[in-house]
Amino acid sequence: MYGIFSYGIASPRVGLKHGQFILDLEIVSLLGYFNGLGIDPAVFAQPVLNDFIALGKPVHQRIRQRLRELLSAESNSFEGIHDQVFIEESRAQLHLPIRIGNYTDFYAGIHHAENVGRMFRPNGDPLLPNYKHLPVAYHGRASSIIVSGTPIRRPYGQYLDIDNKPVFGPSQTLDFELELGLVIGKSNSLGEPVRIDEAEEYIFGITLFNDWSARDIQRWEYQPLGPFLGKNFASSLSAWVLPIEDLEPFRLEGPEQEPIPLPYLQHARPSYFDIQLDVMLTIPGQEPVVISQSNARFLYWSFAQMITHHTAGGCNLQVGDVLATGTISGNTPGSYGSLLELSWNGTRPLHLENGDTRTFLNDGDTVTLRGRAFSRGIRVDLGEVAGTIQPAIYPPVSRIPD
Amino acid sequence: MYGIFSYGIASPRVGLKHGQFILDLEIVSLLGYFNGLGIDPAVFAQPVLNDFIALGKPVHQRIRQRLRELLSAESNSFEGIHDQVFIEESRAQLHLPIRIGNYTDFYAGIHHAENVGRMFRPNGDPLLPNYKHLPVAYHGRASSIIVSGTPIRRPYGQYLDIDNKPVFGPSQTLDFELELGLVIGKSNSLGEPVRIDEAEEYIFGITLFNDWSARDIQRWEYQPLGPFLGKNFASSLSAWVLPIEDLEPFRLEGPEQEPIPLPYLQHARPSYFDIQLDVMLTIPGQEPVVISQSNARFLYWSFAQMITHHTAGGCNLQVGDVLATGTISGNTPGSYGSLLELSWNGTRPLHLENGDTRTFLNDGDTVTLRGRAFSRGIRVDLGEVAGTIQPAIYPPVSRIPD
């Protein structure tokens, strides 16, 4: 996995996660280990991965091959200079790895969509009529995406009190959402849709993504134009981006799509991935507790379908854009990807150790999302994305004339 | 008004619109006319206004004062070098003036919201319950915002046919939306809301904005998360940005807001502006026809309220962000800001000259939005934003295995 790190007086640069260490790719490059690959070492001396990503898949493939040789058990490439090229991850500062141009959030977790439908439209079909015809999505706020570990300030906002009267105060129903983020690795021009059979070429890699949500604010504001302040106070991205190629061993046929999607959304090959996802909740003074276990296989729409649909009208994706999947809930209560679902909108509190309960997040709570994949002896770790809730700070108010 | 222009082999740079001419601020700066103002001339040699905008209002004020002196009727500052510092606008190429980080679209035109409600929820209150309590908005797509004059390709997309069956084809109901865009001139940090009495300090200037909309695509996709492909194929921004200070003579008390908004949204001074807005439709081979005349005074929510609400939960605005107002319709049929309203969802075709009619836009049609303000002998022109509809191109389709 690639990321951006700094340490001591060294400026942010590109690193490769290697166990508990980070391989400093700027140093590796300056020492000549990438000679002959046709790469400007300056791409590794950047505070974001965008220039590195923009090199494109053929170059990434050459770097990957070279790194595999350098890091193989038999190699003694870094003998004697281990401390020069490796740094312990625990000693490094990790940075938001991408300069994110635009951020889009899908709604591709069908069990999440069904659960929300059951809660809020109990007398209708849990899915809206469009759900199985197109990957529903909305544009989100890119500027408030922050790196794992950044504290999450509970937002103020407007919502209805118990008497259905609008009030302005700290959100009372702060939640997480278990998602994956796709990092776009190739740009398409405005007006040039991406065919589904080439869509995965536009993915550089994937990250863990927590789309923090203030349910009370969201519920009051979202009609008719969708979520706004209920989401835009913060979203957390993991510090490490896993190249999509690393997921090849975990490729799956997806769910049966019935009705069959329109031709522009039809796959010619398996386009889903078997990625195990965990949610851990840590409340102050306690050990972390796993409160949910889900899997990327529960997505109804594939990564490829998301990209092809997004660009179908000509919208231009750009290197560094993030497309998040939407909440990935499984089909059982222990696999739901949000507290909204786990507590069934606050009606079924989660019972934790020591008699603690939770419906939504309290100040001081930490949510950590983790991902990993196993198959036939191959293991890939997606790392984690974590955030701790800080108390709301009373915001500045206007000076109303007396 | 400020913008970005190029001509001949000269690279894009900052210009000031001055009648039919553009004053080349890079040259003016290099010739020393801004000496003593403490400005790095490099800000004028950029392909976007962002660095210039980031200088901040005190510096803009000094530049404005200096330019006023240089351009006054009595001045002979540019005598003998007129051709060096001025270029005819018609000979210049105009560029998208801003590198837009994030784009937000509000829904602040109350008559538009009421008209949409009357059309699509004929048996209910035309306004949804939240409308008068908060400025409803959604995040839009920044990457597909293009400069005035760029052709608009009719998008393909998914929508329901007359049998309510989803199909994929060129939008049949392509529309414009008459809006203003605010260009953000000052960043707030994540977690730091902007008070309403300081909100206007965050506005650099305003532009004309056309939020092209594919109504059929939008209608099928927008539940429950809002507009996506119905909007993100293109939005047009004018080439010139009018500093907000130029609107001072046109300041107005706004509409009575009843119910009174919550304190964080309460104004201490008039915060609306009297700006006349026109929509012209030009169909191939015909003269332009004015099809609507509206005014920014019809906005229910002020610019200041939009900014304060947007940041109320801590969302960080950044220099170069664009906040659009939403469609500004007046309270009479001749003042509606979209064809959706002007043709009442296609049921009342507009009759143009020569027997032509329109419900939505045809290929070849040009829509031009114009804005200007007059008050006590002062006139300010916002220029125009124009775009011509090009036919859909059949997009690449997936190769489905035989």
From TrEMBL, chains A, B:
Q: Where is the Fumarylacetoacetase N-terminal domain?
A: 2-97
Q: Which residues bind Ca(2+)?
A: D105, E177, E179, D211
* Functional pathway: Amino-acid degradation; L-phenylalanine degradation; acetoacetate and fumarate from L-phenylalanine: step 6/6
UniProt domain Fumarylacetoacetase-like C-terminal: residue ranges: 104-371
Q: Which GO terms describe its molecular function?
A: fumarylacetoacetase activity; metal ion binding
What's the cofactor?
Mg(2+); Ca(2+)
Which biological process annotations from GO are given for this protein?
Answer: homogentisate catabolic process; L-phenylalanine catabolic process; L-tyrosine catabolic process
Q: What class of enzyme is it?
A: hydrolase
Query: Any idea which residues are catalytic in this one?
Result: H112 (proton acceptor)
Q: Which residues bind Mg(2+)?
A: D211, K231, S235
Q: Which UniProt keywords apply?
A: Calcium, Hydrolase, Magnesium, Metal-binding, Phenylalanine catabolism, Tyrosine catabolism
Task: Establish whether keyword DNA repair is in the entry.
Answer: no
Q: What EC number(s) are associated with this protein in UniProt? A: 3.7.1.2
Transmembrane residue ranges: none
Gene3D superfamilies associated with the record: Fumarylacetoacetase, N-terminal domain (2.30.30.230), Fumarylacetoacetase-like, C-terminal domain (3.90.850.10)
InterPro entries listed in its UniProt record: Fumarylacetoacetase (IPR005959), Fumarylacetoacetase-like_C (IPR011234), Fumarylacetoacetase_C_sf (IPR036663), Fumarylacetoacetase_N (IPR015377), Fumarylacetoacetase_N_sf (IPR036462)
**Residues that bind substrate, according to the entry?**
Y107, R121, Q218, Y222, T327
Report what the protein is called: fumarylacetoacetase
**Which organism's genome codes for this protein?**
Spirosoma terrae
